[in-house]
Amino acid sequence: MAHPLRVTVADIYRAHERILPYIHKTPVFTNATYDKKIGRNAFFKAENLQKTGAFKVRGALNATLSLKEKNPDVKGVMDAIRGYGSDLVLCEPTPDARQAACDKVAKERGYHFVPPYDHHDVIAGQGTIAVEFLEQVPDLDAILVPVSGGGMTSGIAIAAKAIKPEIKVFMVEPEGKNAEESLRAGERLWPNPPRFINTIADAIRLQQLGHVTWPILLELAEKDVFSVKDEEIIEGMKFAFQRMKGNFETYGM
């Protein structure tokens, strides 16, 4: 029996229906040179072409719209988004300081704080990537997902495993996260308090997986984790910018 607080594939399908009017169905790119290089067929889900330039709009929209459905008068959402004018609150560049600043604003203004990854509706929203991906490329054997707090990876793992149980979901991390060590030990081995690691991949700098995402990934993700150095990330970005242009006709929008 599923845990009552666990995100399910049904939650993800509901999230997809909820956010579909507001997002792009992003294309899938292929590249023959890359396929030859790795000896496999690779498919790249281009969430960099998503609205706002990132996958994160999926989880944020689902959490926001779900919150509005439950409480139409909730404060602190939608109006600021519509006007593109929000207050900037500065804090020290650490996870603890960021959380403290959010908690302070929420308390002072009566806002509802939605965590960036450790949240049921955020995870469900991010999982819609896998729903689209497996519609576009049903024969996928594995999905590799960049990981920080684990919201996207958790959502993708839940959806992908429900749609295609034999599929494998691998985490890809910047060097220094050391997720494989914790996965193989079956327990969170990261130091406290949580910290950011030094990496060029500035969107996935958090060292620890979240408390909500951790058990999901411990159960569903592969224990082998791809850990990449800055030099490898730069090489990958250069290849994408130079060689992967417009090759999405077969797996399009």
UniProtKB/TrEMBL annotation:
Keywords: Pyridoxal phosphate. Residues 78-245 form the Tryptophan synthase beta chain-like PALP domain. Pfam families: PALP. Gene3D superfamilies: 3.40.50.1100. It comes from the Eukaryota. The keyword Transcription regulation does not apply. The keyword Magnesium does not apply. InterPro entries: TrpB-like_PALP, TrpB-like_PALP_sf. Its cofactor is pyridoxal 5'-phosphate. Belongs to the serine/threonine dehydratase family. This is Tryptophan synthase beta chain-like PALP domain-containing protein.
